[in-house]
Amino acid sequence: MFDAKKETEKIIDFIRDYYSKNNIKGVVIGISGGKDSAVVAALFSKAIGSENVLGVTMPCNSKDEDRLDAKLISDFYGFELINVDLSNMFKSFKEEINIDEKYLLDSDINIKPRIRMSTLYYLAAAYSKIKNGTYIVAGTSNKLELYVGYFTKGGDSVSDIRVISDLTVSEVIKIGEYLKVPEKVLYKTPSDGLSNLTDEEKLEVKYSDIEKYLNNEEIDEKIKERIEYLHKINQHKFNIPEYKK
User: Fold this and answer.
1) Which CATH superfamily is domain 4-190 in?
2) What is the DSSP code (8-state) at residue 190?
3) Residue 199 — very low, low, confident or very high, per pLDDT cuts 50/70/90?
4) Residue 226 has pLDDT above 90, yes or no
5) Whole-angstrom Cα distance, residue 150 to residue 202?
């Protein structure tokens, strides 16, 4: 039985121990307006103090609702939130690439999280100077997303510390409930805010089924095959081949 209070305390201890041993001051978190980044922000606010947490919203031709939900989280936990609109940067990037649009759907979707991650690291370096102490970037992917490879290599796969990467969606929600994450965000249908599709629409499988699969519970054979297919085709995201002389 998952004990949200106990697990939350262990995560907070994990963060504090790492920060203490490595003389780190603060954290930069991309706040999407969804539950994962909200729970990560809540955990860091408790662990190192909200004054050492910088949240960043990074709209890129995306819904304004996500930015407002991110503001709801920052107001609730009391950390600084800045907005960096990447729409013009994305537009300029595309203008420099002379390729027919019909080939660019996946490229367009994946360049956005890569620009976002560059933005987070840019701000981490800047705030390390402003605050006179090292700021690092926190990852916000959960265990189910990672298992099926639902992340962008060189984008949201990049981070300095992960605190929910071994938690399933239901476990993230339970910790969010314990930390009193506003319900509007905690129970919001997950989406990347980039493709106008929900996560489950893109994956063609429900998170609840991925969780059942990882827990060795019985699921439909076709759903099982889909999960295993996603896991297999995304192995290149985890294992980088390296020639050794």
Assistant:
1) HUPs (3.40.50.620)
2) P
3) confident
4) yes
5) 9
Structure tokens at 84: 């960096």
Residue in the structure block whose two tokens are 């920052």? 74
For residue 200, give both structure tokens.
Answer: 């489950």
What residue type is 149 in one-letter code? G
Quick one: how far is CA 10 from the chain centroid? 20
Helix (H, G, I), strand (E, B) or coil at 236: helix
What pLDDT score was predicted for residue 174?
Answer: 98
Q: What is the number of other CB atoms lying within 10 angstroms of the CB of residue 185?
A: 23
* d(C-alpha 180, C-alpha 124), whole Å: 27
Residue 121's identity, in one-letter code, is Y
CA 12, 14, 16, 19 torsion-angle sign: negative
pLDDT digits (tens, 9 = 90+) for 122-157: 999 999 999 999 999 999 999 999 999 999 999 999
Give per-residue pLDDT as tens, 23-61: 999 999 999 999 999 999 999 999 999 999 999 999 998
pTM attached to this predicted model: 0.94
Longest Cα–Cα distance in the chain: 55
Tokens of 159: 């981070």
CA distance 168 to 151: 15
What's the pLDDT score for residue 195? 63
With contact defined as beta carbons under 8 Å apart, do 194 and 32 qualify? no
Q: What is the pLDDT of residue 175?
A: 98
Within 8 A by CB and 6+ apart from 170, the residues are 2, 208, 211
Phi and psi, residue 170, nearest 5°: -65, -35
Site of tokens 């019985």: 218
Residue 93 in contact with residue 115, Cβ under 8 Å? yes
Both structure tokens of 183: 């319900």
